[in-house]
């Protein structure tokens, strides 16, 4: 039985990866931070199948202990301060977790079990002000947020340990990947949750920032398969994982509302842009300058050819199906809340 240690196991990717590894017969250990109230997040339904270890990326001693307990064949570092907007408000904490934390974990592996295979969750945010389109494994990086900068350190320190200590250490440069398990602070889930609440009369308007920002969106359940595949290769390497398509936030909004029975007509430009309900003329979407980033990334588009060819990775869920999945899940969630409150 293979053994895997996952940091960030209670997040979106952690839950899908755990399901995948359990299906493949792994013994799964999950790193969680000590809290006053136990919170197993998206793996609540799997907690009986996981052995949890209390540790923190900023505390190397706890990571060494976690490695000694788990004795993993594979280590997946999914833990991070993962909200880009928060990285401007907490740049030091973001750096300690997303940059130094990666080094701490690599050191813990080196001390306890250097033959363990390591996966680092890198991000398309490292490309930032993109230097070429589409972005590949060789595209120069130009991060535009403290989050992106810290993640870039984590990416390069992983490569450095691979080349310096011959560790099997690789990075997945994952473009935006979403699901019904995405946190509400992320724009995609913010949209689908708002659509459901507007549908049930609990909210009037959805407020967003830059409607023109274009992203390469995929389904998280597909992307964790690429993580696993990276650690099954003969040699460690880095891979871009993406859909190869880009869509503006505006299009995501239109599709989400359509799946809930609304058609959006747009009026105005910039901060004055509004999305109107075609049937009633009611303002369902409006722009709020508070949600603009200090340094915006206008376009991200990944080229996943290397992952297709070397890993044999394939996507199962396209963009429209992803949006539909998220809207349907939030309609069900909000609908059950409404039903419960009326009893």
Description:
The chain has 343 residues and is an alpha/beta fold. It has 2 domains: 3-178 and 217-241, 3-Layer(aba) Sandwich (Rossmann fold), CATH 3.40.50.720; 187-215 and 247-298 and 318-341, Alpha-Beta Complex (UDP-galactose 4-epimerase, domain 1), CATH 3.90.25. It has 10 helices and 15 strands. The protein has helices at 12-23, 60-70, 84-89, 91-112, 146-165, 187-199, 220-230, 249-259, 305-311, 319-341; strands at residues 3-7, 27-32, 50-54, 74-77, 117-123, 169-174, 177-178, 206-208, 214-215, 218-219, 239-241, 247-248, 264-267, 274-277, 283-287. It has a 7-stranded parallel sheet with strand order 3-2-1-4-5-6-11, sandwiched between helices. A 4-stranded mixed sheet has the order 8-15-14-13. It is globular, with a radius of gyration of 20 Å. The mean pLDDT is 95.
Distance N terminus to C terminus? 48 Å
Characterize the overall form. globular
Q: Which spans have pLDDT < 50 for at least 5 consecutive residues?
A: none
Share of helical residues: 25-40%
Pfam families: GDP_Man_Dehyd
EC number: 4.2.1.47
Domain NAD(P)-binding: 5-326
Keywords: Lyase, NADP
List key phrases describing it.
globular; four-stranded mixed β-sheet; alpha/beta; UDP-galactose 4-epimerase, domain 1; 10 helices; Rossmann fold; 343 residues; seven-stranded parallel β-sheet; 2 domains
